[in-house]
Protein: Acetylglutamate kinase
Amino acid sequence: MEKLTVVKIGGKVINEEAALDAFLKKFALIKGKKILIHGGGNIASDWQRKMGVEPKMIQGRRITDKDTIEVVTMIYAGLNKKIVAKLQGLDNQAIGLSGADLNVIKSHKRMNLVIDYGYVGDIEGVNAGVINALMNLEATPVVCALTHDNSGQLLNTNADTIASAVATGMSESYDVDLVYCFEQPGVLSDFENKIVIPVIVKKDYDGLKNSGTISDGMIPKIDNAFAAIDAGVGQVKICHFDAIDTVHAAEYSGTVICQK
Ligand SMILES: Nc1ncnc2c1ncn2[C@@H]1O[C@H](COP(=O)(O)OP(=O)(O)O)[C@@H](O)[C@H]1O
Ligand SMILES: CC(=O)N[C@@H](CCC(=O)OP(=O)(O)O)C(=O)O
Structure:
C-alpha cells in the first residue's frame, strides 16, 4: 500500500512564527502524499480574553456558544489560510479546508444531557474520496478544526480528533502514519529531564495515567491515537515539531503508540 503521512500541529506551534516556519520548512520536504491538520486552541483563547470573555474548557473541549463559534471560525479558518500561504511559499501545492469544504468532514452537534457544549461537533464521517482526489492533483490538504452538520452550521471540533478521524478514513486505501507534533520531545516519563517513553502499548497506558505520568491534554491525544490504531491505522507517533523530518528515519527519537 502507498504510504500517507498525516501530521497534526497544535496552537502552541502555530502561535510562534519561528516555530511554525521551522516546522513547515521540514513538513514541505516530506516525500509522498501528506495531510496537515492544525489546531489553534490557545490562540482562540487569547482572542476570547482580548474580547473580555474567559474561555471555558471541559475535558479539553471548548464550550462553544453562539459568539464563540463566530470567533473560532474566524481564527481557525484564518490560520488555515496563513499556513497554506506559507506552504505555497515553500513550493508545496496546498489546499486549505474546513470540514465544510467539499463536505470533507460531516459531524453532528454534540448531544450531552449534562453539559451543553454548544456548537461542538462529533465527527460522523470523513470523505476519503474527496481527500484522495485532491491529493491526486498533487495538492496537500491542510485541515482546520471546523466541521459542519450539512445543514449550514459550522461546528468546533478538536484537532487531535480530526487527525485521528482523517487518518482512520484514509487507512482503507493507504498505509497511514499519523504523527502528533507538539512542543515536547515525545510523551515524557520525566518532565524535568525530558525523558521520552519510546513505546506505549495499550496494556501500559492505564498504569501511566493512574500514576499521573500522563495527564491533561496528553490523555485525549493518546485516546485519539489508540482510536486510530483500533480502526486500522498502523502506528501513531508523538514527537517534537522539530523532529518531523525524522518520523520515517531510524534516528526517530519520539514516542510510538502501537497495539502491542
Ligand atoms: N507525559 C507527558 N508527556 C508530555 N506531555 C504531557 C504529558 N502529560 C501531560 N502532558 C501535557 O500535554 C500537553 C499536550 O497536550 P495539548 O496541550 O492538548 O497539546 P496540543 O495543543 O499540541 O494539542 C503538553 O503540553 C503537556 O503539558
Ligand atoms: C471542541 C474544541 O475544543 N475544539 C478545539 C479546536 C482547536 C484545537 O483542537 O486546537 P489545539 O490542537 O491547538 O489544542 C478548541 O476550540 O480548542
About this structure: Residues 3-258 form a domain with the Carbamate kinase fold (CATH 3.40.1160.10). Residues 10-11, 39-41, 44, 61-62, 72, 120, 145, 156-160 surround N-acetyl-L-glutamyl 5-phosphate (ligand 2) (CB under 6 Å). The helical segments are 11-14, 17-28, 41-50, 66-89, 128-136, 159-170, 202-210, 218-230.
